[in-house]
Amino acid sequence: MTPVAAATTGSTARTPSQHARRARIVDAATALLDDREYERIQVREVAEAADVALATLYRYFPSKEQLYAEALLTWGESFETRVRVQNRDAATDADRLRVALRRTVRAYERYPNFFRLVDALEVVHDPTVSERFTRFASRFTDALADTLVDTPEDQRAAIAFVSSTVLGGVLRGWSVRGTPISRVYERVDEVVDLIFSDRLR
């Protein structure tokens, strides 16, 4: 996809009906992404699925990129919550980090178009898109850091960053180059083992 620079930002929803309409648009965009890749979705289709006029959609989201950046951010919120809740039974930081990373892989394996969306939005030069993408990425690394309850606080952010970076690389190999998903899980285990074996020396 060609990077675009958008000069406008969507209108803010102020009334309950406006909030509901905006949420309906984001939900419709998310539902369409479940079925097909981002590049194959037309904004008009989102408006029709949300039962709003095309002009109304563009009032809230002046570009397709802004709409899907919001959809990604919203999808990420529920995912981050599940990562935190489902880590409570793990006994060690290594186990908790491994569970979080494996659940991330499983989520993208189930919803591969969302990872392709991450790749597409990462190169968009619209400040609104960049802000939402940065929030999405930051919240994910924060969720990883929060699994490291027994790790010194000054090391948590670095471990989360390294883990997230490695995960992004191996997922890209799966999404773009056809690396088997089993290899992605193996890489996750390897990076966790490496991090914690080094820390125990």
3D structure, described in words:
The N terminus is likely disordered. The chain folds into two domains: 53 residues, Orthogonal Bundle (Arc Repressor Mutant, subunit A); 137 residues, Tetracycline Repressor, domain 2 (Orthogonal Bundle). The N and C termini lie far apart (46 Å). The protein is an all-alpha fold and 201 residues long. The relative contact order is 0.12. Helix 1 crosses helix 4 and helix 8 packs antiparallel against helix 9.
Short note summarizing the structure:
With 201 residues, the chain is mainly α. The chain is built from nine helices and no strands. The longest helix has 25 residues.
Helix/strand order, N-terminal first = HHHHHHHHH
CATH architecture of the largest domain: Orthogonal Bundle
CATH homologous superfamily caption of the largest domain? Tetracycline Repressor, domain 2
Q: Which spans of ≥5 residues are poorly predicted at pLDDT below 50?
A: 1-7
Backbone structural class: mainly alpha
Shape: elongated
Mean pLDDT: 89
| Proportion of residues in β-strands | under 5%
Total domains, how many? 2
Distance, first to last CA? 46 Å
